[in-house]
TrEMBL record:
Entry keyword set: Signal
Superkingdom of this protein's organism: Bacteria
Signal peptide location: 1-26
Listed name of the protein: Lipoprotein
Amino acid sequence: MKNRIAAAVFGVAAAAVLTACGTVSANPWRADCPEPVTDGRGMLAIKDGRTLKCQIKVFTSNMACTDKITNPAGDDGYACTNAANEGAVFFFDKNGVLKSHEFLQR
């Protein structure tokens, strides 16, 4: 009997937690990092000269990334790979605006 009561209480508590999680806003966009242009599938539309580093970081948050690279011109870099070893390298100007990028495939 105690196990049934405990299971019922746990089930109600779990449902309440999951419902509360759904009501929390996960909007990452702020004044200093505005919502970017996306394509028809909701993917980031990467545009040299327009896309910001903060926007790319949001869209690559589930990838393995590093920002400890620079190109020969001294531009800040950001490189990411996914589980299939596909990746991208991005370079930004001093204001965090995308200057160039390249997609890499294995």
